[in-house]
Amino acid sequence: MKVVGVGPAPGHLTESAIREIENARIVYGSRRALKIAERYIRGKKIVLKTFKGIKLEGHGVILSTGDPMVSGLGHMGDEIIPGISSVQLVCAKLKVDLCECVVIDAHGRKLNSVEGDLKKTIEMGRYAIILGDDKFSMKELENMIGDRYCWICENLGYRDERIVHCRISESPEIKSSLVIVVVR
To answer: Could you tell me if 155 and 166 lie in one domain?
Structure first.
């Protein structure tokens, strides 16, 4: 089974990903991933609500939003077709070199579970790229690392994209489950 990265939003599919999707008999993915790739899907579509314990059949591909190897589904495949990740997109939008960053996955997790990694990243003088969701607590972040400047990036690549540069204490409410917070 191949895992194909479809990018973080429409318009970010690679040529390799498009070829794999067009040639697949069965295409598995979340609603969002299938929507991103829909114009290239010729085979049967199967919406997955969870990726745990699934049984995959036939010559198919699993779509992973972003890149399968950046907090993605790469562990599920025999072959990985990379995609553009939301991390690459946020670096481009903020003009930050990825080599100066540490990616921290807090999506669907309590922020305190990544507190050590976060503090270490800040101490090293690196950008912390924190993958979050609509439950992300800016107050909890402030309690961990102080009132620093940050960027709150929501819905990158979509029409309702929002990037706010502010102090953590002045941050607006996070409204999206597609959020990345960048701190240095």
So the answer is: yes
Give me the phi and psi of 45, to 5 degrees please: -100, 135
10 Å CB burial of residue 90 (0-12, 13-18, 19+) is buried
- Average pLDDT of the residues in 159-175: 96
List phi, psi (to 5°) of 4.
-115, 125
Four-residue CA torsion sign, 182, 82, 61, 75 = negative
Helix (H, G, I), strand (E, B) or coil at 149: strand
Answer yes or no: is pLDDT of 57 > 80.
no
Average pLDDT over residues 146-171: 97
Distance from C-alpha of 167 to C-alpha of 173, rounded to nearest angstrom: 13
CB 102 within 8 A of CB 37: no
pTM: 0.91
- Residues 138, 174: contact at Cβ < 8 Å? yes
Range of the domain at 179: 87-183
